[in-house]
Design a protein that fits this description.
355 residues, mainly beta, 15-stranded antiparallel beta sheet, 1 helix, globular
């Protein structure tokens, strides 16, 4: 048996804007949200035979935000595990999860940031029914490991910002008035291969996934890409130890581009700029990828003291990854402009002392 409890106090400022200039001089009201969260859980491991076991439990949580709105949610969990042989393991997991803090994505506001808000009467706590089937193989020598997991999550009470920058700059701006509410689904496959021993160690991880949402205010029948959708996500990490002093390490990461809502056309009507948008989150930024390398020299230890010197290069081939895009003028041409990551290549030297 296991049991535990915890308590959290939150003080959140969702978003504040201050604009000055010849065309506008305005500031959105300063918002501050406070909340308390308390939870307790109990879990039991139940043997079901020589090769089967179950982990069953429940988590009870209470969340209270100011002014005066409380939520109580029970969340059961169940995992069935089957071990047909010492090196193989198969498990099936179901869990109900609650989300009281919301990271609100901004798709068509032209901003490269999300913002946070707490659950309230207007923003109900999110819930996720999660189902996962996983397989793990561990070589008897401990040299190799392989893991695979297929999952599906049904999400309810999802929230997203559907206003524009003009709404944010209005004196009557409020978070709740510009949110849409609906449901979502996440599903995919995660693969991981690890090498734990030998001169060459490291791991390769790959995720093939979909993250989709459906909001009645946007489209009552059609699913669209979530702002967090990453169709492909690849990570490769390796380290090669030449001897007791020298080692060379590196990593390579690749991820599909972030979805966003593209403006297809702009019109001037009665001296007002009006945009015609494409499918919600129907466009994608270019994929992001980079490689980092590091050469490390470890000095001979002196008692309990260990020294090492590290030479590294971040973004070895100077990839310019696009962070976000916005509409603007470049000379006399009006259209989308890309903002790139700040560091194209960054060499560094580091010294580590452990005692």
């Amino acid at each position: 048996w296991q049991a535990g409890a915890d308590y959290h106090y939150y003080r959140v400022k969702p978003m504040t804007f201050h604009v000055t200039g010849t065309a506008a001089r305005n500031a959105s009201p300063t918002l501050t949200e406070q909340a308390h969260e308390a939870s307790a859980y109990v879990q039991s491991r139940i043997p079901l035979g020589q090769k089967w076991q179950a982990d069953a439990g429940i988590r009870l949580s209470y969340f209270h935000s100011h002014p005066g709105k409380g939520f109580f949610l029970p969340a059961p969990r169940l995992t069935l595990r089957f071990d047909p042989a010492p090196a193989h393991s198969l498990s099936l997991h179901y869990g109900l999860y609650a989300q009281y803090l919301h990271q609100i994505p901004v798709s068509n506001g032209g901003l490269p940031v999300d913002y946070w808000t707490v659950s309230s009467g207007d923003t109900q706590p999110g819930q996720a029914h999660s189902l996962a089937l996983s397989y793990r193989y561990a070589h008897p020598s401990g040299t190799w490991e392989f893991e695979a997991e297929a999952y599906y999550k049904h999400l309810t009470r999802q929230h997203e910002y559907y206003g524009s920058i003009l709404n944010m700059l209005s004196g009557a701006y409020s978070v709740a008035q510009n949110l849409v509410h609906g449901k979502g689904r996440n599903y995919g496959l995660n693969l991981m291969l690890k090498k734990n021993r030998g001169r060459l160690t490291g791991w390769i991880g790959y995720a093939l996934s979909r993250s989709e949402r459906r909001f009645p205010e946007i489209n009552a029948t059609e699913w669209f890409n979530s702002s967090y959708d990453r169709r492909h996500d690849l990570s490769v990490v390796a380290n090669y130890r030449f001897n007791s002093h020298w080692s060379l390490g590196g990593n390579f990461v690749y991820a599909s581009g972030t979805p966003y809502t593209r403006t297809n056309a702009l019109y001037v009507i009665n001296n007002n700029l009006v945009g015609q948008y494409g499918k919600y989150n129907g466009a994608h930024l270019p994929p992001t990828h980079r490689m980092d390398v590091a050469l490390t020299y470890r000095f001979a230890p002196r008692g309990r003291t260990m020294h090492s010197l590290n030479f590294s290069v971040y973004n070895l081939y100077a990839r310019r990854n696009v962070l976000f895009r916005y509409l603007g003028f470049e000379g006399k041409q009006f259209g989308y402009k890309s903002v790139y990551s700040l560091c194209r290549m960054l060499p560094s030297i580091g010294y580590t002392l452990k005692f």
